[in-house]
Structure formats: C-alpha cells, structure tokens
Amino acid sequence: MTSPILISPSILSADFARLGEEVRAIDEAGCDWVHIDVMDGHFVPNITIGPAVVKALRPHSQKPFDVHLMISPVDLYLDAFAQAGADIITVHPEAGPHIHRSVQHIKSLGVKAGVVLNPGTPAKMLDYLMDDVDLILVMSVNPGFGGQSFIENQLRKIEAIRKMIDKSGRDIRLQVDGGIDFTTAPRAIAAGADVLVAGTATFRGGPSAYAGNIRKLRGG
Ligand code: DX5
Ligand code: ZN
Prior knowledge:
- It is a single chain.
- The chain is α/β, with parallel strands linked by helices.
- It has one domain (6-218): Aldolase class I (TIM Barrel).
- It contains eight helices and eight strands, in the order βαβαβαβαββαβαβαα.
- It has helices at residues 19-28, 51-57, 78-84, 99-108, 154-168, 184-191, 200-203, 210-218, and strands spanning 6-9, 34-39, 65-70, 88-91, 112-117, 135-139, 173-177, 195-198.
- The protein has an eight-stranded parallel sheet.
- Helix 6 links the parallel strand 7 and strand 8 (195-198).
- It is globular and about 45 Å long.
- It starts with 5 loop residues before the first strand and ends with a helix.
- D-xylitol-5-phosphate binds at residues 10, 12-13, 35, 37, 68, 141, 143-144, 146-148, 177-180, 197-201.
- It catalyses: D-ribulose 5-phosphate = D-xylulose 5-phosphate.
C-alpha cells in the first residue's frame, strides 16, 4: 500500500542567489518537503551546500527538510546537519564503513533516517536495514547533477523495494530522485514510489510556474 504522493523539490535547480526566496516560493506553491542535495566534490563530482546554508534556510519554511548527503566520509557531518535543522537525513551505503551504524546515529539525533541506493546498487543491500529505516531513496540517475535522464531499469528496483516495504509492515517512505518529470512521475508512482524528488521539473518556468508544476507532478 502506498501513502499519498509527496513532492520534494530539489533546490539544486533553484536560483542560488535567491535561495531563501526560492524555498519560500516552493513552500507557498504547495510542496510537501524541501530536498537539499549536499555534495562534496569527492563522493560525487560536484560541490553544493553545507550545514551553514541549511541553517540559514531553516527560518524560510516549516516544511520538513529532506537532506540528501552525497559526501564521504559521511558520519563526521551527521550532527552538524541535524543541528542545522534537517528533519530527514539520507545516506549512501558507499559513503561510510558501517551503514547500520550511520542509520542508528541519525536516529539518535532525533532525525528520520533514509538510505539511498545508487543505480548500480542492488535492493538486496537493504535486507538488514528494513527494521530501522524511515525512508528508502532510489536514485534514478547517478548522483551529482540535476537535469539528467531517468534510468529506466530503476523502475524494477522500485517495484522490488515496494514489495519489501509492504512485507515489513513498517511505515517506510519510498522516494525516487533523478529525471522525474511529468512523464516519468506517473511511472515511478505506478511502480510504488510515494515521494518524488524533482529539481528541473519543479523550477522550470520560474516562481509563477511552481504551483502548477508541483500539482502536475503529483498527478493532479
Ligand atoms: C542528483 C540529485 C537530485 C537532482 C535531481 O544527484 O540527488 O536531487 O538534483 O534533479 P532533476 O530533478 O533535475 O533530475
Ligand atoms: Zn537528491
């Protein structure tokens, strides 16, 4: 069973010179969460946002901050992102030596814990994390940049993980990130995703288009 569809716009596609205003604009346009892509130029070939920026954005929206960490080693920075105001912290298993420990660490900070699978990482790696995670994120592009094309075979992974979640009986959100637009969104939802990250498709057309873009992504 999937829950109502949530939209988490990736601010990677926002105007970085006006980031506070952009976060307020997507909030007013009806987004559910705010997706913040943190990149270090080492785990992925791009550099973006650190905890100071997350903290600066915090007063601009009450909506959950969904912080996707693409940094390695990741464990050293979990406390800083929690203190900066993250509500959900999502980590890649390849970004540290002990993914189970990282998940426990995030939960001990009072923050919801997510695990992200890169396109080449199998669903099986979640087997012994299902008792603890609050969210599973399937990357439908290789992490590092907005505006890439959706990798089709990730739909099969979403279907497999949807079955694992339903079997677990736990309240786990299934998120998809990368190349989500008005065409791929319904396909990801049909495969079992219930949280859609969308950067390009949310921010295209500027602030006056955000509400319509979010509504269309949701399927309305
Ligand atoms: C990629 C990021 C995504 C990205 C999505 O590493 O995790 O959140 O910004 O961008 P679009 O929606 O443009 O594919
Ligand atoms: Zn992301």
